[in-house]
Amino acid sequence: MNTPLIGINGLIKIKPEQLEASLEAIRGFGFDCMEFNLASIPLIAHGEPVEPYVDYVRGIFERSPLKITGHIGEGLDLRNLREPALHKSVLAASIDVCARLGIDRLTLHFSKASPILKEEEAFFEAHAEAADYAASRGVLLLMENIEIEDYRKVIDMVRRMNHDNFKMTLDIGHLYLSVRYFGGDFLQAVRECAPLVRHTHINDNTGRFEPMRLENFALYKTLHMGTRTALGSGDIHLPPLWGKIPIREAVEILRGAGFDGIFLCEYENDLYMPFGEKIQQDMRRLVGEVYGG
Ligand SMILES: [Zn+2]
User: Fold this and answer.
1) Is the per-residue pLDDT at 293 higher than 60?
2) How far does the centroid of ligand 1 lie from the alpha carbon of residue 46, in Å?
3) Which residues line ion ligand 1, judged by CB < 5 Å?
4) Domain limits of the chain?
5) Rounded distance from Cα 112 to ligand 1 centre (Å)
6) Is 182 helix (H, G, I), strand (E, B) or coil?
7) Computed over its alpha carbons, how large is the radius of gyration of the chain?
8) Which residues pair with residue 202 across a beta bridge?
C-alpha cells in the first residue's frame, strides 16, 4: 500500500497570471498535490481547447513538483437534451486538456438525478463514451457525490458502468450533509462507497443541510459564504477537522478498503490562508496515524 498523498484544491479567486505563484504558495504550505479546476482559466471555448492557455498552463505545471489532479468546470450538463453534442464536446475537451497537462484523474459532478428517464440515460451514455475515450488518453474519470442527491445513486451508476476507468470521488463533506437530508448513517455510507473510491475530497461542515440549495439555487448562490459559515449552513467547505465530521473514522474505513490515493483537502482556502501549513500538517498527521506511516 502506498502512503497517501495530501493535496489541496487550487487557490480560489486567483487570476491566470497568478497561477504559478499560487502553486508555489501551495508547495510552501507543504502539500503534495493540487486539484486544478478546469474552469478557473479559459482552457476550453465552445467545446474546443484554447491552445495559448493550454501551452501556458502546461509550462507552469511542468515546472512545479506538485502532482496535479483535475476537476471539471461548473456548467457541464450531460443531462441536457437540447444541446447534447455541445456538452459532450466540453467533456471530451476537458479530458484532452487533462491529458495534455499531465493530469491523470478528473473528478466529475453527479449533481442531481433527473426525474426524466431519457435525461438519466443520456447522462449515463455520455459518461460511458467518455470513460473509453479517457482511458485511451490515460485519464481516470471519477464521479463525485454531491450533497443534493442520495449517494446511493452514484454507487449505482459506477456499478452499472462497471468500467475500470470510471470510479468514484468521495466528498465526505457532501456525504455528511446528504445523509442528514436523504437518510442514512454517515459511516455506513462511507463503508458502502469505499470499494469504489479512487479519490477523495476532504472538508468539514456542521451537518446542517441548507434546503435552499435544492429549493432555490439562484438565491442560495447569492448568500455570502461568511453568513452561511456563521450559521453553519450547508456545504461551507471548512478546513478538515474544523467542523463536526468524524474524519478519522472515515479515513480508517477507506484504509480498510485498500484506498491509498490522495486525501485532497477541498476547502474554501482563500478564507483560511493564515492556516494553510497547519491544515496540511494536521491532515498529514491524521493520515499518518491511520496508515501507520
Ligand atoms: Zn468536492
Assistant:
1) no
2) 25
3) 171, 201, 266
4) 5-279
5) 14
6) helix
7) 18
8) 265
